[in-house]
Amino acid sequence: MNKSISVIGILLICTGLVYVGASLFGIQEQKHARNESMASAQKAISAGAGTPSEDRENGEAIGILRIPALDREVPIVTGADEDDLEKGVGHVPSTALPGEGERIFLAGHRDTVFTRMGELKPGDVLEIRLAEGTFTYQITDSVIVDQDDLSVMEPAGEEMLTLSTCYPFEYLSSTDQRYIIHARPVH
Fold it and tell me: What is the DSSP string of 30-42?
């Protein structure tokens, strides 16, 4: 009996070690992807001429989101599927880009690029740097919506930056709510 308990214990420990190793490998891959996207974004900004929206491919780095209150800069990539979000903050292509006078929608994982997002408050500044220039926004409010509430991506009739991440922040798995931050341009 003691021998089978020992074998089961060893198997459980080995399984746990494999799981931890795989998780650490995944985290390193995500960091590497974000670093590559950041380098690509900086190169695109330095080039001074952005790729037209219709020519952008999902996962392509297009800019940098700077969040001074969190002392963070993250790359912005085209698209918001799982592969895109591993590289940085995803810009939903059906929404506007800064300077186009409509809603800009950026999504990110709460446990990577948008950690501590719940600490942001009205009045905090967000900055988007693209090849076309630097655009500054000030947070006006935050709301929690159901994941299937797509009204947060609809045209706003004016320029507005909307950030989205999963909520509640403490969960380790997917959730059915989203934490939304709205910000208006600073002129």
Answer: HHHHHHHHHHHHH
Helix (H, G, I), strand (E, B) or coil at 19: helix
**Residue that has been written with the tokens 């989203």 in this structure:** 178
Which sequence positions are flagged as catalytic? 109, 166
| Element holding 180 (H helix, E strand) | strand 177-185
What one-character DSSP code corresponds to residue 176? S
Q: Which fold has domain 2-185?
A: Sortase; Chain: A; (2.40.260)
Count, residues in the chain: 187
How do the domains of the chain map onto residue ranges? 2-185
From first to last of its 187 residues, the chain has per-residue pLDDT tens of: 677 776 676 766 766 655 555 544 545 565 666 677 767 777 777 776 555 555 678 888 999 999 999 999 999 999 999 989 999 999 999 999 999 999 999 999 998 899 999 999 999 999 999 999 999 999 999 999 999 999 999 999 999 999 999 998 887 777 899 999 999 999 7
Q: Are strands 160-167 and 103-107 parallel, antiparallel or unpaired?
A: parallel
**DSSP, res 126:** E
Residue 164's Cβ-count burial label (10 Å; 0-12, 13-18, 19+) is buried
Give the number of other CB atoms < 10 A from CB of residue 126.
21
